[in-house]
């Protein structure tokens, strides 16, 4: 069995800093890069980001939807982007936000975490709102293959609180129950567990316990309005586990690989200084 994702991520952050960079071939970005809005353009986009950032950041996060919109050719482009990134030594967190039950969840887990799958990544995002227990196939696959799982907990979209702030029969918030469940899975693992959560930088203040002994993926930075002050305010005690995620702020510097690398270096230095 390969080294657990939590350890591999810890090592990558120690070597390259905590920054996670999205790979989002949005139509507007493809246009600004002078690329066609098709599968070939998405593939060229993804492989350029990989070329620019290999050896410079800890993690890249391809957004599957921006590839899937081109059908089978787009999924093939995603496969090549993921394979290139992993071959270059980058950790790949595939942003797919899957969530289902039983054998269907197990099939999704096989698709994204089994090394025999052409879409195998180091970790993926999942939605727990069919119940935390529905995630068990993902957790089992992560354990079997040394992968990671990032559970949506406190997301940055304005609709999130409708579900995440709702109270369970025991009186705690739904988000709090998810954080507690993740902490239980990660208990006793060092330097951290392999099950992370997603906590948006723009959620405002929270009374939830973010000490899950695992990675905290933090989107909502840069173009989405979150900044260094939000990281400092929300995550002070758990700063070593924070993975700031930035996309447009860096991708907008393309298509020149050197410009992408420079933008990533600036963002990485900023967030590393806050979290240090």
TrEMBL record:
This is Orotidine 5'-phosphate decarboxylase. It catalyses: orotidine 5'-phosphate + H(+) = UMP + CO2. Keywords: Decarboxylase, Lyase, Pyrimidine biosynthesis. The keyword Lipid biosynthesis does not apply. It is an enzyme of class 4 (lyase). It comes from Sporichthya brevicatena. Residues 18-263 form the Orotidine 5'-phosphate decarboxylase domain. The active site is at 97 (proton donor). Belongs to the OMP decarboxylase family. Type 2 subfamily. Its EC number is 4.1.1.23. It comes from the Bacteria. Coiled coil: none annotated. Pathway: Pyrimidine metabolism; UMP biosynthesis via de novo pathway; UMP from orotate: step 2/2. InterPro entries: Aldolase_TIM (IPR013785), OMPdecase_AS (IPR018089), OMPdecase_type-2 (IPR011995), OMPdeCOase_dom (IPR001754), RibuloseP-bd_barrel (IPR011060).
